[in-house]
Write a sequence for this structure.
């Protein structure tokens, strides 16, 4: 047991846990105190609050798994962790712009950037024949495509002809 605690794997596991937990906590505090998030939670078309909270934390657990796996496979000449950090940052900009400021155009742009960086990372992983990691991050690409679609719909509802 002492050998496992002193290993690099355990250090990376603990570091991944703290990085993702801190990111989740900070982003949760920013979004929860945002002006439009609480209005969205209390609207008629929002899912139950429990579903939102559970899915939020499950997303960050998934981010933690991806970060740990990327950290395990990171080489000195690859930039996996940098691309992953950039796509998490663009996701944070997306979430803050939607739920705090209701800035749908900024959200659509940041969601598109998340897709670009995630696809870049998936292609790098495919070139290096790391198919399991590529599959993990391909799920994030699909999720970001969904966010982009929702951002475009919300933007058209907010600024388009459908607005009352």
């Amino acid at each position: 047991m002492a050998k496992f605690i002193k290993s690099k794997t355990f250090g990376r596991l603990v570091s991944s846990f703290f990085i993702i937990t801190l990111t989740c906590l900070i982003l949760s505090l920013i979004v929860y105190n945002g002006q439009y998030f609480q209005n969205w939670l209390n609207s008629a078309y929002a899912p139950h609050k429990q579903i939102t909270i559970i899915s939020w934390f499950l997303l960050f657990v998934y981010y933690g798994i991806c970060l740990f796996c990327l950290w395990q496979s990171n080489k000195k000449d690859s930039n996996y962790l940098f691309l992953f950090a950039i796509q998490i940052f663009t996701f944070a900009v997306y979430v803050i712009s939607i739920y705090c400021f209701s800035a749908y155009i900024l959200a659509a742009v940041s969601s598109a950037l998340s897709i670009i960086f995630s696809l870049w990372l998936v292609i790098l992983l495919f070139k290096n024949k790391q198919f399991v990691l590529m599959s993990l991050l391909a799920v994030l690409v699909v999720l970001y495509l969904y966010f982009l679609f929702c951002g475009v719909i919300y933007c058209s509802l907010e600024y388009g002809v459908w607005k009352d």
Observations:
- The helical segments are 2-5, 8-32, 35-41, 49-73, 80-99, 104-127, 131-159.
- DSSP finds seven helices and no strands in the chain.
- The radius of gyration is 18 Å.
